[in-house]
Design a protein that fits this description.
- The chain is mostly helical.
- Helices cover 59% and strands 2% of the residues.
- It has five helices and two strands.
- The chain has a two-stranded antiparallel sheet with strand order 1-2.
- β1 and β2 form a beta hairpin.
- α2 runs antiparallel to α3 and α3 packs antiparallel against α4.
- The chain is elongated and about 65 Å long.
């Protein structure tokens, strides 16, 4: 597959992942699917906006750049056949690195949130009753959280989804770094078509 076509495929995959990560982060503001009376009762990691900023907003920039590479004008460098497409592929490496950072931010936050557990009311106070992920293997401990209802499976599901999706995003952006290097060094296999040349650019 040509480097431009590969980038477009990666961008097409990143867009829905970014939307899903944003939605997952928004849902975390409603513990157990309900509106909380006090924002201090929401798990701290939710306020770091890992899914909204890291895997959401930051991910849209590389995704849009990847989508545009397929139709990029390879003669756009003052008519020089050898630099237009190559420069575009090189710039995609920078945006891919931004995507890796954004996905990594969301991944780390999600991992920390899963290990720490949700903030809930234990009957005496609002606190974090779990330590070092000990609740993950022992479901009976989930009863320690009396409110919000179903907060443990709610947070566990959404943060797990964020962890998985941000991991996929990081891998896809990593693939584009390699793809971008190939495109920068070797050019795109279809670049000759728009420039009228006989070989790759």
């Amino acid at each position: 597959m040509c480097t431009g076509g590969c980038a477009k495929c990666l961008g097409t995959t990143l867009i829905p992942l970014a939307v899903l990560c944003t939605l997952a982060n928004i849902l975390l503001f409603f513990p157990g699917g309900k509106v909380v009376e006090n924002n201090l009762h929401i798990t701290d990691e939710v306020w770091y906006f890992g899914g909204i900023l890291g895997s959401g907003v930051l991910m849209t920039f590389p995704a849009l750049v990847f989508l545009g590479l397929k139709n990029n004008d390879c003669c756009g460098c003052c008519g020089n056949e050898s630099c237009g497409k190559r420069f575009a592929m090189f710039s995609s490496i920078i945006f891919a690195a931004v995507g890796v950072l954004g996905a990594g931010y969301c991944f780390v936050l999600s991992a920390v949130a899963l290990n720490r557990g949700p903030k809930c009311y234990t009957g005496t106070q609002w606190t974090y009753p779990f330590q070092d992920g000990n609740y993950l293997a022992n479901h009976t401990w989930w009863n320690m959280c009396q409110s919000p209802e179903n907060i443990v499976p709610w947070n566990l599901t959404l943060f797990s989804l964020l962890l998985i999706m941000s991991g996929i995003q990081a891998v896809l952006c990593g693939i584009q770094v390699v793809n971008g290097l190939f495109g920068t060094i070797c050019g795109d296999c279809k670049c000759c078509g728009c420039c009228g040349g006989d070989g790759t650019v």
